[in-house]
C-alpha cells in the first residue's frame, strides 16, 4: 500500500510550520487530526495514514500557517491541572495566568468553606482550576458573553466540577448583592491602540477579552472601584495585569481602600498579578 506515513506527514507539517514552534505544534496538529495521543504518534511513525485523514492533517496545518491559533484548531488547551475545551469565543488560557490561581490558592486553605468570584471567566480556566483544587470552595464564575458562559459551563460539566456556578454580566454587576471572601480576575488589559492586537494569536481572540480602553485599565478600574462592595471585611481581590501596569494597579487598589497591597512577578520576572485586602471595618 502506498501513501503518506505518520513520519512523512509530521515532517511536512513541521517544515510548513517553520515560523512557529514547529516540532510541538506539528505533533499537536497530527494528534488532533488523527485522533491519537503523543505515545501513539511516537510508536506508529511508519504507519500509513488513510488519504482522508492525511487530508485532515494538511487542512489543520494550513489553518495554522494562515495564523489561526493551535488552541482553536485543536479545540483545547491545558491550564493548571485541567484540560479545557476552547472556542474562538474565549481567550486562550496563558501559562502566566496560573500565577493568579496559585496566589488565590495560597489564600484559600484546604478544607475551608469560602466563597470566591471569578470575573470574566472566559473558558472558566481560573474559576475551574480553583474549584478543582479546593473542593470545599464555592466559586461563582461570571462573564458578559453568553457564548463564553456556554464554553465555561461545558468545561465544568465535562470535568465533573460541581462547586462552581455561573452568572452573566459585566464585572462586579454580575455579582448582584452577593459578598465573597475573595474575588479573582484576568480581565482585558491591553490598550486599544496596542499594535500586538493586530499580531499573532491575538488577532483571533475575542477583543472584549483583550482590550480595555486607551490605557488598557478600564476593566481593572471598574473592578477595583466596585469590588469592596462585594467583599467581606478581610476579603481579598487579586488581578492579572500587563507587565507595565503594576504601579498603576497598586495605586488604584490603594485609592479604593485596599490594604496589604502587593504585586507578584511571573516566571519571566515581570509584574503580572496584584492584589490587596478589603480593610476590616468596625461594625
Ligand atoms: N496576557 C494576554 C496577552 O498579553 C492578555 C490577556 C488579557 O488581556 N487578560 O496576550
How would you describe the overall organization of this protein?
The protein contains ten helices and nine strands. It is α/β, with parallel strands linked by helices and 283 residues long. It folds into two domains: 6-66; 90-277, 3-Layer(aba) Sandwich (Rossmann fold), CATH 3.40.50. Strands 5-4-3-6-7-9-8 form a seven-stranded mixed sheet, with helices on both faces. A two-stranded antiparallel ribbon has the order 1-2. The N and C termini lie far apart (81 Å). The site of glutamine has 9 residues, from loops.
Structural class: alpha/beta
- Give Rg in angstroms: 21 Å
For the record, the CATH architecture of the largest domain stands as 3-Layer(aba) Sandwich
Q: Name the CATH homologous superfamily of the largest domain.
A: Vaccinia Virus protein VP39
CATH topology of the largest domain: Rossmann fold
Strand order of the largest sheet: 5-4-3-6-7-9-8
What top-tier CATH class of the largest domain fits best? Alpha Beta
Low-confidence stretches: none
Q: Which sequence of SSEs, written as H and E, runs from N to C?
A: HHHHHEEHEHEHEEHEHEE
- Average predicted confidence as pLDDT: 95
Helix content: 25-40%
3D shape: elongated
Distance between the termini: 81 Å
Largest sheet: 7 strands, mixed
Number of strands: 9
Number of domains: 2
Count, helices: 10
Bound molecules: glutamine
Q: Estimate the strand proportion.
A: 15-25%
Amino acid at each position: 500500500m502506498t501513501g503518506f506515513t505518520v513520519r512523512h506527514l509530521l515532517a511536512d507539517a513541521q517544515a510548513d510550520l517553520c515560523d512557529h514552534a514547529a516540532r510541538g505544534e506539528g505533533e499537536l496538529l497530527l494528534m488532533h487530526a488523527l485522533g491519537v495521543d503523543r505515545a501513539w504518534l511516537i510508536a506508529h511513525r511508519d504507519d500509513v495514514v488513510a488519504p482522508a485523514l492525511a487530508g485532515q492533517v494538511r487542512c489543520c496545518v494550513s489553518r495554522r500557517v494562515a495564523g489561526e491559533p493551535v488552541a482553536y484548531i485543536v479545540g483545547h488547551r491545558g491550564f493548571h491541572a485541567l484540560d479545557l475545551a476552547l472556542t474562538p469565543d474565549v481567550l486562550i488560557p496563558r501559562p502566566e495566568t496560573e500565577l493568579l490561581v496559585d496566589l488565590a490558592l495560597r489564600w484559600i486553605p484546604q478544607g475551608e468553606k469560602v466563597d470566591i468570584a471569578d470575573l470574566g471567566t472566559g473558558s472558566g480556566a481560573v474559576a475551574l482550576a480553583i474549584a478543582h483544587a479546593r473542593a470545599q470552595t464555592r466559586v461563582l464564575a461570571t462573564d458578559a458573553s453568553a457564548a463564553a458562559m456556554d464554553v465555561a459551563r461545558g468545561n465544568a460539566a465535562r470535568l465533573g466540577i460541581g462547586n462552581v456556578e455561573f452568572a452573566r454580566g459585566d464585572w462586579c454587576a454580575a455579582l448582584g448583592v452577593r459578598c465573597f471572601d475573595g474575588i479573582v480576575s484576568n480581565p482585558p488589559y491591553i490598550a486599544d491602540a496596542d499594535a500586538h492586537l493586530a499580531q499573532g494569536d491575538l488577532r483571533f481572540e475575542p477583543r472584549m477579552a483583550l482590550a480595555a480602553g486607551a490605557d488598557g485599565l478600564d476593566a481593572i478600574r471598574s473592578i477595583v472601584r466596585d469590588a469592596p462592595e462585594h467583599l467581606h471585611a478581610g476579603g481579598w481581590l487579586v488581578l492579572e495585569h500587563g507587565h507595565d501596569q503594576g504601579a498603576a494597579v497598586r495605586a488604584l487598589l490603594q485609592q479604593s481602600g485596599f490594604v496589604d497591597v502587593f504585586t507578584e512577578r511571573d516566571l519571566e520576572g515581570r509584574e503580572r498579578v496584584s492584589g490587596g485586602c478589603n480593610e476590616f471595618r468596625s461594625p
